[in-house]
Amino acid sequence: MWAACFDTSGPYQQRQKQKIKGLTLCSVVRGTMADAQHFCLRWNNYQSSITSAFENLRDDEDFVDVTLACDGRSLKAHRVVLSACSPYFRELL
């Protein structure tokens, strides 16, 4: 499960009325600072959603910032993903 909290007293105030696909409102907390509201959102189907998001990034080659090459073949990748999954790449990159 993934959750995030937003303070609606700032730039997110206009977004509070928008419905966000895949997110569920799990609680609302009123603060004392000028009656600011905080919303806690839960990302539904987190595992499949995050997997799908990473697949889309890979397939669309959005934000690729490194190319791996071996035996005449190459593969575009994301440094942050390689570093998160491998201590070798984290040290190298």
From TrEMBL:
BTB domain residues: 64-93
Any one GO BP annotation for this protein: regulation of transcription by RNA polymerase II
One Gene Ontology term, aspect cellular component: nucleus
Coiled coil region boundaries: none
InterPro entries, sorted: BTB/POZ_dom (IPR000210), Dros_DevTransReg (IPR051095), SKP1/BTB/POZ_sf (IPR011333)
Localization in the cell: Nucleus
Lineage: Eukaryota, Metazoa, Ecdysozoa, Arthropoda, Hexapoda
UniProtKB keywords: Nucleus
Record carries keyword Metal-binding: no
Protein name from the UniProt record: (California timema) hypothetical protein
